[in-house]
User: What shape does this take?
Amino acid sequence: MTIVQNEAKWTNRFLIVSVIQGAIATFLTILLALFIISTSYAEHLVSKLLDDPSIGFIEITALAGLGVYFLIGVLGNGVLAFIYHYFESLLKKNFHNLSGVLASSHLILTNIGVFSVSIIMIYAGYLGDTAVFSQDIAGFGMSPDEVSQNMLNHFIVPIGIMLLVSSLGAICGGIVFIIEFIKK
Assistant: This one.
């Protein structure tokens, strides 16, 4: 079902993606909440944080990943839908040819990048948290330095690459807005 027929093709696409990303973010949040309330994970994490506050950066990795997903994946797409609405409905611009390719690239690259960065960060944070727990509670018994050097550092390059993919999508979006704004 479309919001406005043909007149707001890109508005509809970005709104639909925002709704889908919102559903995924909600699902991830529910999984996290169920995990926390059904295991002793939170209790162990809090006691571990109180014993050694330096492991807080590991937990921040997962929470930042989820935050990035909500802010850019969900809200960002919603805001972009309004920007595309402005161009399509108010300025009566159509995104055809090069503009259509750039708008497609904007939608696809930005969302693939944001989703990938978020999932990698959430996974890295979870893995890092588990690694600092002692082996008697299903952890690896590693120190924060060992976790950083042996586990988390391996995620830096993939996160960086996916940030570049997302940035490339955003650049495509900026270019398409400039092209359509100056086009008569």
In short: The chain has a mean pLDDT of 89. The chain is about 80% helix and 0% strand.
